[in-house]
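fyi for ur records
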Amino acid sequence: MRSNVADIVGHQVAAFVNHRLSLSLSGPSVELQTIATNASEPLTKSALELGKYKITVNAYAPGIVNTPMVEALVDIAEADMEMYNVAISRLSTRAIEAESQPEEITSIVSYLASKEAHFITGQCITVDGGAVLS
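which gave:
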């Protein structure tokens, strides 16, 4: 990472925006909570190290997004009733009952990489319609 840092130090806007699975952010399993905790440590450490160079480090964690890949997974899940029920349960417990579109994810990533987000660092923004609340 140090060679990348040297390349971007001094630029007007410098940001790292990482992807995280939102599944690791929620769930009844202690194992999932441990994964989420351990995954946030490198993000926080990087944010602390790179902050002195005015480089922000953040992540986004999308929920289920309406894409061709998700549509294919739904077709597969319909063949496995248990998997299908889990997926339907997760979708039905979101605070906002609407399908997430790819543009909603790209707008968060664009914002985190912009100069307007210069004071946001070490954060993971979950974009899942409130599914992690349930």
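The longest strand covers residues 56-62. thats all i got for now
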